[in-house]
């Protein structure tokens, strides 16, 4: 949850658009001092979602500090159109143990012009000992267009069930770019383009240690140089 809105009225402007900074509970003190929101290491998805929801209708940018953000529920952090989610190489969003069946970390549904960049999304599958379901996901795009996923590490999505986790999952999502991501240890597939996910550009990704590297169903990608 949010400990305090350090400067809740401080809506930054970045290249003409609004932006917020969210600090992890273990962020450096100097980062916490300049942050708009500081999380306390418990249900940190609440703070991240509040910041995303506070963006104006024309969107903006959310910057997550280095450090670990702990997500303890099933409902994904919902991204909105025209939203940029920037994470540092040291940013981790980690599912806590046994948050509920079929947990997801990030999702966009019917949105456009989204950017997700940097950071580590950790499904923490080794800790998911009692939850079940086959649809745990790090990133879920459903009906999303004209969006980008760049330089993200998606690792260890899954539940206690076999064949249960996905790294990046596109469902009926077209004209997106999936570049330079590291996809590790999904209990099912690391990367999936499904159900008329057409004309996506997927290139320079590395995937390993999943049951399969991915499935492609009814897809006409612009390029399919996946790995």
Which key features would you list for this structure?
six-stranded parallel β-sheet, 2 helices, single chain, eleven-stranded mixed β-sheet, disordered N terminus, 227 residues, mainly beta, disordered C terminus, 23 strands
Describe the protein in words:
There is one protein chain. The chain starts with a strand and ends with a strand. β2 and β3 form a beta hairpin. Helices cover 7% and strands 42% of the residues. The strands form 3 sheets. Strands 1, 2, 3, 4, 5, 8, 11, 14, 17, 20 and 23 form an 11-stranded mixed beta sheet that branches. A 6-stranded parallel beta sheet has the order 6-9-12-15-18-21, with no helix packed on it. It is mainly beta. The N terminus and C terminus are likely disordered.
How far apart are the termini? 37 Å
State Rg.
Answer: 17 Å
Q: Per DSSP, what share of the residues sits in E-state strands of 2 or more residues?
A: 35-45%
How many helices does DSSP assign? 2
SSE-based structural type:
mainly beta
Molecular shape: globular
The main β sheet shows up as: 11 strands, mixed
- Quaternary state of this entry equals single chain
The chain-level mean pLDDT equals 88
Q: What's the number of extended β-strand segments?
A: 23
Are there runs of 5+ residues with pLDDT below 50, and where?
1-14, 215-227
User: What portion of residues is helical?
Assistant: under 10%
Order of helices and strands: EEEHEHEEEEEEEEEEEEEEEEEEE
């Amino acid at each position: 949850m949010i400990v305090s809105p350090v400067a809740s009225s401080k809506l930054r402007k970045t290249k003409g658009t609004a932006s917020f900074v969210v600090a992890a509970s273990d962020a450096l003190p100097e980062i916490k001092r300049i942050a708009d929101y500081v999380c306390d290491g418990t249900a940190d998805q609440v703070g991240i979602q509040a910041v995303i929801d506070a963006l104006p209708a024309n969107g903006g940018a959310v910057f997550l500090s280095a450090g670990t953000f702990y997500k303890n529920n099933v409902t994904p952090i919902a991204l909105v159109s025209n939203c940029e989610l920037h994470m540092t190489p040291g940013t981790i969003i980690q599912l806590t143990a046994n948050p509920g069946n079929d947990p997801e970390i990030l999702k966009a549904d019917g949105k456009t012009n989204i950017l997700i960049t940097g950071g580590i999304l950790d499904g923490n599958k080794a800790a998911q000992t009692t939850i079940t379901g086959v649809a745990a996901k790090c990133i879920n795009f459903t009906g999303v267009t004209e969006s980008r996923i760049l330089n993200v590490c998606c690792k260890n999505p899954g539940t206690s069930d076999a064949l249960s986790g996905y790294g990046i999952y596109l469902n009926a999502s077209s004209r997106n770019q999936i570049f330079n991501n590291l996809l590790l240890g999904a209990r099912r597939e690391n990367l999936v383009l499904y159900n008329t996910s057409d004309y996506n550009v997927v290139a320079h990704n590395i995937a390993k240690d999943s049951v399969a590297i991915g499935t492609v169903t009814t897809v006409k990608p612009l390029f399919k140089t996946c790995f």
